[in-house]
Design goal:
The protein is an alpha/beta fold. About 30% of the residues lie in helices and about 30% in strands. Helix 1 packs across helix 2.
C-alpha cells in the first residue's frame, strides 16, 4: 500500500484485495463518531469490498451482502449501527423518501453510500468521500475529509498507514 497525503486528503494505491481489506480495517479502527461516507467509482472497482472490510473489521461475522437490490442493508455491531446503501438501481432520488431516508440520519449511525449521485438532494452531505478508480492492475483510492468529524478520522487513519 503506497500513500500520498495532505491535511484533508489521503491517496492510497491498492495493489491487492488484501490491501483493500487492510484499508477497511484501518478505517474501522479510526471510527470516533457517526458520519456519512460517499463511495464513488466505476462498477467493479471495489466499493462494496471496502465497505465489507470495514463491517467485518468491526466484528460482524455474518455475510455482508451487497445492497444492490435491497438498496440498504443495516448492521448492528456492538455500539455501531451501520447502514450500507447502494443507490445504483435507483430510478429517481425521490424513491428514497419511501425508504424513510431521513430516519437513517439520526446522528448515531454510520451511513455508507455507493452511487451517492443518484440520491442527490435526498441524502446528507458526505463527511468523508472515498473515490476508487482503476489504475492499471491496481486501484487508486482517494479519501477526502469534508467535515471536522472526517478530519479527525483521517488524522487517525494516517497513523496506521
Amino acid at each position: 500500500m503506497k500513500n500520498v497525503q495532505d491535511e484533508n486528503q489521503l491517496k492510497v494505491t491498492l495493489h491487492t484485495e488484501q490491501e483493500t481489506q487492510l484499508l477497511g480495517e484501518f478505517i474501522a479502527k479510526s471510527f470516533d463518531e457517526p458520519f456519512t461516507c460517499y463511495l464513488s467509482g466505476d462498477l467493479g472497482v471495489g466499493k462494496t469490498r471496502l465497505v465489507r472490510a470495514i463491517i467485518q473489521s468491526l466484528g460482524f461475522s455474518g455475510t455482508v451482502k451487497s445492497p444492490t437490490y435491497t438498496i440498504v442493508e443495516p448492521y448492528k455491531i456492538g455500539q455501531y449501527t451501520i447502514h450500507h446503501f447502494d443507490l445504483y438501481r435507483l430510478a429517481d432520488p425521490e424513491e428514497l423518501d419511501f425508504l424513510g431516508i431521513r430516519d437513517y440520519f439520526d446522528g448515531a449511525s454510520y451511513n455508507f453510500f455507493e452511487w451517492p449521485e443518484k440520491g442527490k438532494g435526498w441524502i446528507e452531505a458526505a463527511d468523508l468521500s472515498i473515490d476508487l478508480s482503476f489504475d492499471g492492475p491496481n486501484r487508486l483510492c482517494v479519501i477526502q475529509a469534508n467535515s471536522k468529524i472526517a478530519k479527525n478520522l483521517l488524522k487517525k487513519l494516517k497513523q496506521y498507514l
